[in-house]
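Appendix B. Chain record.
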Amino acid sequence: MGRRLRTTVPALPTLLNPVLPDYYALEAKEREKRGNDEKSFNKRHGARNLEPLVPGEDVWITDARVQGTVLSTHNTPRSYIIQVPQGRLRRNRHHLVPLQTNSGVVDADEPPMGEGAPVTTSPEPDPPTTTSPSREGPTIETVRTRCGREVRKPQRLDW
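Structure tokens predicted for this chain:
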């Protein structure tokens, strides 16, 4: 590759001349390999470009867990300047989730609604244990499952 060989084996003088590789061909081959690697990685991991944000758009900042407004793009790739209640932040597009507003979709502060039906919260379920009178007379605590089935313990466990 360009270094002098130290051997006692006789060789032709033309074989001892260093031959350097064709850098243009090598560079083209490596560029093609890197492109193929990139394509296969993106295909395997489902990588895609995120949609760009426009100034004035409301976003959720995932790492800071606050809502903000896009002021402008930053000079670095995929970065934005965001106005939050505490001041201004610079964040990568990866950390910004656009919030959908008043166009018939959900706002960040309101829970999602169903098919026009109001959302009602169900009361907490009753505790799983209830007491009921037994046929034998004394009151024994009966354990019931969530669906209401009575759990009967095997007799062999009673001493």
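Further analysis of this model is presented in Appendix C.
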